[in-house]
Amino acid sequence: MTSLPFDPIERAAENWQDAWGDARRMRLATSIMRVQQLLINAYDEALRPHGLTFARFEALVLLRFSRSGALPMKVIGDRLQVHPTSVTNTVERLAAAGLVERRKNPRDGRGVLAELTDEGRAVVEEAASDLMRLDFALSALPDDEVDAVAASLSRLRKAAGDFE
What we know:
This protein is mainly alpha-helical. It contains 7 helices and 3 strands, in the order H-H-H-E-H-H-E-E-H-H. The protein folds into 2 domains: 42 residues, no CATH class; 83 residues, Winged helix-like DNA-binding domain superfamily/Winged helix DNA-binding domain (Arc Repressor Mutant, subunit A), CATH 1.10.10.10. Helix content is 63%, strand content 11%. It has a 3-stranded antiparallel sheet with strand order 1-3-2. The protein is elongated, with a radius of gyration of 19 Å.
């Protein structure tokens, strides 16, 4: 990807301002969307050697942080805030790679648990180390700005009903 000689979001904001007025919120929304694309690309590149995408890494991390290393599919979907079809696809790919096992939920004969394998545990540890070394591609921001941005985004998520 080549760098542009100007900031396209700033240019769009100038045009927006001329056409419709205050462009601050459009500029912020567009910047958030672009930064999300850049971060996902950086994470996917860092995780590729482990055979992971960021979505699969998130599922492994969730299982790693669970008490038993296993969670029902519905809980995974709820915690990751993704559609059940996405959870099924993610877990199936992780199972095919030998990083999780699918098994019946002993508490619910119909339900399915995804359980972290020993290999999955090793991969998530290595992948997390790589993301930490990358500083989650956020090293351009000092810690106080990271905290301020996280707090602002948390307020937006809460206002949108993402959590109570």
